[in-house]
Amino acid sequence: TKPVSYFQGAFQRFSKNKGAVVAGVVIAFLLDKPMMLCEKYLLKVNINKKLARTISTVIALTFGILVVIGFCMLIVPQLLDSILSLLEQAPGMIEKVYYDVELFLVKNHISTDAINKYLGDDFLARTLATITTTITQTIPQILALGGKVTDIVLNTLLGLIAGVYIMLEKELFMRGTKKCTYAFLKTSTADYLTRFAGITRKVFNDFILGKALDSLIIGILTYFLMSLFNMPYSLLLSTIVGVTNMIPVFGPFIGAIPGLFILMVIDFKLGIYFALLILAIQQFDGNILGPTILGDRLGLPSLAILFSVTVGGGLFGIVGMFIGVPTFAVIYIAVKEVVEERLKQKQIEI
User: Model confidence over 5-28: pLDDT tens digits?
Assistant: First the structure.
């Protein structure tokens, strides 16, 4: 029973700190290219491999930390101001919508009796009370996060440490995995898995980094155009548009809905202009920017992309919508290779 209890305790400890492990893998993945570029330059000036890897890891990690700190200093305060301003104005916005609808019904001689009977005479009061209650309940939850600051900081530090170890010793991990693969599997199977691991890495690397760059440009472009046309909450809404743009197919629509709703409450015409602006930006992204950055690296038909986003979202939510496309691309490549090989063996040409 001792070995069983030991492994159970180890699994529980891993489950508790799995966020740090995942963070470490993500950090190592995102900083791999900057690290390799630095290492390539250092090796050219005759610095030995181990020292070059250490220096390039420190440079890449410092670069990543500075980017995050810079983002937090420039964006987060303005985002918080926009969110707090929006929360303060939310009751007034709801009241304005209620009276605008009521005025529209009166002007068009539409009977409000049935609507009032369905909604109730105290609909506005109940709506405002619900909003107030929601905000009141949310504030303690936000404050409660302060009690978890220690855990968050600890997991972040553990993630950074794990990321550094993975970056420093990635060849060691890869070599160990490769040894186990060839030790326990047939040589032909091990060859295939090794080759396919490289394909998987390339697909995910190209998609994630390319989509991140594409979304960053779209977010900046949205902010610039909204500021140019003096639209309110430009930073908040452009950040939402940029972040949700990471999700293929549905991302632009998901990002546009909050902004469309907020601006239409403020001014109906402003909401229409925002919708037209987002439509123009997404046309630019879909026809010019996206193909330029991503190209046709995934090799997936449009229907397959739609299918992968839908299935991934249904199984794993927002994260599934994002990773569903590269995952399906890897499966698509594997199935395609098997099908072509089988057809070749049967000497069938289609």
Answer: 554 555 455 555 566 777 788 888
